[in-house]
Amino acid sequence: MIARKRFALYLTVCLAMALTAAGLACKSSRHTTATTDKDQNQAAADAPAASPEQPKEKIEVTRLDDLPRHNYPFTGQVAELVESREQIVTLARKVRADVESDLATYKIDDATTLKRMYGTLLTVDLIEGNDDAVLRRAEMVRDLEDKEPARLMTGLIVQSMIAAKRESGAGPESDRYKHAFREELSARLAPLPWNVIQDKVEQYKGMMEIYSQNLLMGAIQAQIQPAVDKTGELNADQAAGVLGMHVLLTQRLPIKDDIVAVYAELIAANRVEKPDIWAARSVTLSPDEDLHNVLIAVWDSGVDDKVFADVLWENPNDPINGADDDGNGYVDDFHGIAYDVNARRTTGSLFPLGEAVSRMPAVMQYMKGFMDVQASVDSDEASALKQHLGSLAPGQVKGFLEDLSLAGNYAHGTHVAGIMTSGNPFARVLIARHSYDFHTVPVARTVEWGRRDGAKCRDTINYLKNAGVRVVNMSWGEALDDAEDSLEANGIGDSAEERRDIARKVFALQKDGLYEGINGAPDILFVCAAGNADNDVEFDEDVPSSFDLPNLIVVGAVDQAGEPTGFTSFGRTVQVYANGFEVESYVPGGQRMKMSGTSMASPQVANLAAKLLAINPSLEPAELIDLIKKGADQRKAGDVEYLLLNPKHTVELARSAN
To answer: What's the Rg (C-alpha) of the chain?
Structure first.
């Protein structure tokens, strides 16, 4: 049960995907307005006949929260449920009935939601052995996919599994089946354009390599069991995850080595490095130029102030001495301010490691190893990660996941700050630290917590205004289910309906505080990451990426060749795309590491905005956004058009107008 956004580096998103994978071989992307009557008519045909009480016309939904929640009473050990064929079949039938009822009742124009629902039905079909339905579901998902790499790869695994079963007449434990499966998968992959599917193949190989029964069972114990113990039920996402885990254990793990081998052979025969377009587009300002200093804020998980000591903003009225010398309510805000996981004011530029400090060097190497595995890089760190994961007992998985999440929080802000300041000797950095809980059972997001968090947003932005900040980077986001998951994990609320109502109140407090803060600071340009959930940010109501404000620019991610990544979120409010794939920057201690995510794309736009202000400090946020968009390149991937960041061209426009 991992929140979709927060400070999610792409590596933690990938791990979440790996641990909650369902029936399809890939993570579905999202796009609004991509559904067809044919798709929903087929889904309706699969559903039970409508009773007289059901509405004749479907109810239109415009946001994710419009759809009903479903919950399934359960007490006991979820790990035992996953391994029990009888209990899984019973749960699968209940889940099918709810999904089919929703498809028959609601008009859904968000393709991601449809693909998620079809994917759940596909998983149920796999469990029930309904091969023809599996193939049909895979086609339905593929028809909704607007990203060519995912569209080409969608369903290949399940198609190959079914063909192998029919050819061999045996199950996945059989050598005949495995041989047939490898032949089928290889044949389906062979004609696909390698330059299009390369990243997906490498990603899928990496995900399969880390699968193991112990890891999956440990993830269940860490992420699902605590909430079930407190609520006595599985929510719909958990139920779908449990069904997917069963399929992984019974149908995928037996052929894990075969899948990896096919992908490895394909990579070895075809792999080429994509051209990197970003070096030619980059801009480095010279310190000898007669330009202007620009105060920027890294509103993030914290920054190692020693790495950026030469460019940090300083508050001369509040030196670091444990006191609030200037009486502004913040103690030791010499380089900026900080909030803890309870949305209360605290001190310290970096997220605290606590008792994990001795483990962090190794965990940071595991982070690098995970990213290398995802990119199919055969490094020492990747080998160490695989060896470590292979040695974990189920009971040790929780600690590993929490350490990895802690490492992400610890490193995230420093990495972002390095990107934001690169090539700009005129940037001055103010640190605004806020914190997310890295525990699998996080701090409860109660209404009182929501009030504090909303106030935190307003107060932080007021602080930035008073300090004279011109550009703020926000490589983070919030969603309704973050609050709902937190309440569930802590067993707060007597029912799912009560938790849902509380979560709505909490999310509204957060959303209003953030919106009012940004809207009330018209002289500051806010730059935010779209998110790594591959979703339409407006339909899911992610904030701040769903906000439509004149002083906010939302950034999606592309790879080194300028092509949209499979993980990037998108939507009407996402205005420009920047490099979010294996971007190198600093981590605490001064080492450099490559990381991926829209978290890495957003500060590149903030970096460009700060350079524009160094050239012309009179530029207003709307003018900055206009310049960034005018300097960007119009690109098209499939049917999707997008603006690709071009710092060099944008700076040329600014210089010519200055």
So the answer is: 25
